[in-house]
Amino acid sequence: MKAKGRGRRTQARAAMLAMAAACTAIAGCGGGSGGGFVESGTLRFVNAVPDSLPLDVFVQNTAFARVGYGFASSPTPIAALSLRLDVRFTDSAGTSNSVLQAGAVQVNANRDAAVFITGEVADADILVVRNELADIPAGEAEFRFVHVGTRRNDVELFLTAPNDDLTGAMPRATLDFRETSDLLRVPAGMYRIRARAVGAPDILFDSGAFNLADQSRRIFAVVDYFGPGDSPLRVIRIDNVGASVFAAEAFPSSARLANFVADTTTVDGSLDDGVAPTAIDDVPFPSLTDPVVLAATSYDVTVIADNDPGNVVYQANQSLVSGESHTLVLSGTVANAIRARWVRDQTRPIASEASLDVVHAAPAEDSVDFYLVAVGAGVSGNTPLFRALPPLASAELQITPGSYDVLFTRATTTDVVAGPVTIDLAARGLYGIYSHEAAGGGAPLEILFHEQGAP
What we know:
It is a single chain. Mean pLDDT is 92; it is low at 1-34. The chain has 455 residues and is mostly beta strands. The chain has one helix at 11-24, and strands spanning 40-47, 55-59, 62-67, 76-79, 82-90, 96-106, 111-118, 125-132, 140-147, 155-160, 173-175, 179-180, 184-187, 189-197, 205-212, 217-224, 233-238, 243-244, 253-261, 266-272, 278-284, 287-288, 292-294, 298-305, 312-319, 325-332, 338-344, 354-361, 368-373, 386-389, 394-399, 402-410, 416-425, 430-436, 446-451. The protein has four domains: 1-26 and 38-133, Sandwich (Immunoglobulin-like), CATH 2.60.40; 135-250, Sandwich (Immunoglobulin-like); 252-345, Sandwich (Immunoglobulin-like), CATH 2.60.40; 346-455, Immunoglobulin-like (Sandwich).
């Protein structure tokens, strides 16, 4: 099971560790006879490795930061000198794995060093982006573009007023992988970033309108995107706190339908945005559809059973989030009660792991424990990966690739209510495991193992 991520160290603790590590590497740091003042800069790390687990960064053999994909540590004061880096990750088996080592990363006085960890896990490298820490005049802001996305070279990047047309516009930067723009200065205010491949008209990323605050200094980084639609990239913004996506970024969403309503033959879904309804028809029990890419907006969702418009099993308004993939899980029985929940799906493959979404979709069993064990091992003497899952609870995990048995037991007992079912998991694989009731409803519970489709 994937090790739970430690919380990001506070800036104060990271600064103390980093300065202590740096001071051990030079003579006369700090007080003492003959000790001199050591100038400092700031250091931070950005994880742009698209197939990585959270990365642990060590500076001078001292733990400095843990950074998940698409996130950044905050700038931390550190002595201005050449530093040794070691980047590792801990896999789901608890083994520490080296990603890269760098022997001479220079931190300069009065400058920020943003260290981008780039490439895939198998060929990771660093790109150091340095910015001066000088004050910015009132009414202005500074920014820099950085391209660390692995899936598209030669990207044009535009920073414009929110309503500007790109016809005839010149990009602020044209970048290949691991390239950066100059540090650029503009009036503070409302802007919009758009990205496209060189020579192509299609927009691959649109930030929507955002505020570039007075006297702010930002890095806008191109990274890999794994959500619905055809775009291979997105742009994230990096500030003095960390990294974030743009609130108004314009990606599509996706939806699919999981039919675990045990006394139906099929169900049919309709998602109506008020313009043109989208149909998801003839979903047999028990199964999931492929994802359907949709605009990220609000939908009136209706699901009927067995081609009968009078037999409505689900009806609600649902907002589909930009850049996310969703599954509507329907469970229970028409005769008793339908239970429904929207579940967000994992979409980013991990180089060393298999990724699982686990959903308890059998309300006939109030609460279950979930086991993933060696083939033939059974539950006796093993520990559940998830305990006391109520109906329609979902959980995510990453696990070492291989063959396993899946079992569900009655919560807090070793009474098996579903399984064993043997499954094979591959590195980079995205999978779903669903408990569900038998045809007609109730016991014996069954297990559906599903390889997730691309969003």
